[in-house]
Amino acid sequence: DIVMTQSPFSLAVSEGEMVTINCKSSQSLLSSGNQKNYLAWYQQKPGQSPKLLIYYASTRQSGVPDRFIGSGSGTDFTLTISDVQAEDLADYYCLQHYSYPNTFGAGTKLELK
Amino acid sequence: QVQLKESGPGLVQPSQTLSLTCTVSGFSLTSYNVHWVRQPPGKGLEWMGRMRYNGDTSYNSALKSRLSISRDTSKNQVFLKMNSLQTDDTGTYYCTRAHMALDYWGQGVMVTVSS
């Protein structure tokens, strides 16, 4: 099984700051067939279902603000949130869907400083 | 529009079997995969398994011996059955559609394993 190591566990930020969340996979998530990385990022607010932010490592889902930026390839991936807003305070998870079983990172809690 | 909705018992006794139903609308089960994901209270997301558009299934290695996913395409439903439930199976269970990634999610159903 592919292991997803996500860091940090939690992050305290002020509004307007930039934050980065990292995910490292134990195997490459890059498909040689289509050159896409099968890595997605999710946001989950308390009491809500996860919301897809980014897929294929860097493609923003429709309606997601452009302050959410996904980057990386192979085994190392980053979610950057520029100009953090109060509404961004949530838990964030990475997901590899390159192979089965799919696996999630442990999550990062974004809190207000 | 695309919707998924989980249903099932809120309380299950230890050692019993959990049966959940995911009813979908706005897309066809013969065109998209549907996955199950769970989340213990206050903890992270765990991928459980998936029903492929062609009827194939894949499971989390740790749950494989207890888990079964099936479907009824005529009713637009995907089913999850997991036996030998223990207290650490308590949590919210989600079904979710796969397109690019897991794009649409149900609201989740809370399952408590307790006597």
Give an overview in words.
The complex is a heterodimer of chains A (113) and B (115). In chain A, strands 2, 4, 5, 6, 9, 10 and 11 form a 7-stranded mixed β-sheet that branches. The model of chain A has no long low-confidence stretch (mean pLDDT 97). Chain A has strands spanning 4-7, 10-13, 19-25, 39-44, 51-55, 59-60, 68-73, 76-81, 91-96, 103-104, 108-112. In chain A, strand 4 (39-44) and strand 5 form a beta hairpin. Chain A is mostly beta strands and 113 residues long. In chain A, 0% of the residues lie in helices and 47% in strands. Chain B has 115 residues and is mainly β. Helices cover 0% and strands 54% of the residues of chain B. Chain B has no helices and 11 strands. In chain B, the strands form 2 sheets. In chain B, strands 2, 4, 5, 6, 9, 10 and 11 form a 7-stranded mixed β-sheet that branches. The radius of gyration of chain B is 13 Å and the shape is globular. The A-B interface holds A 1, 38, 40, 42, 44, 49-52, 55-56, 59, 61, 91, 93, 95, 97, 100-107 and B 35, 37, 44-47, 49-50, 58-61, 94, 96, 98, 100-103, 105-108.
List keywords for this structure.
heterodimer; A: 113 residues; mainly beta; 4-stranded antiparallel β-sheet; 11 strands; 0% helix; B: 115 residues; 7-stranded mixed β-sheet; globular
Mean pLDDT of chain A: 97
List the secondary-structure elements of chain A in sequence, H or E: EEEEEEEEEEE
Cα separation of the termini of chain A = 36 Å
Number of helices of chain B: 0
Q: Tell me the strand percentage band of chain A.
A: over 45%
CA-based shape of chain A = globular
Order of helices and strands of chain B: EEEEEEEEEEE
Instruction: Give the biggest sheet of chain B.
Output: 7 strands, mixed
Count up the helices of chain A: 0
Return residue spans of chain A where pLDDT drops below 50 for at least 5 consecutive residues: none
Please mark out the parts of chain B with pLDDT under 50 across 5 or more consecutive residues, or reply none: none
What is the multimeric organization of the chains shown?
heterodimer
The share of residues in extended strands of chain B comes to over 45%
Rg over CA atoms of chain B: 13 Å
Radius of gyration of chain A, rounded?
A: 13 Å
Helical amount among residues of chain B, as a percent range?
Answer: under 10%
Instruction: Please count the beta strands of chain B (DSSP E, at least 2 residues each).
Output: 11
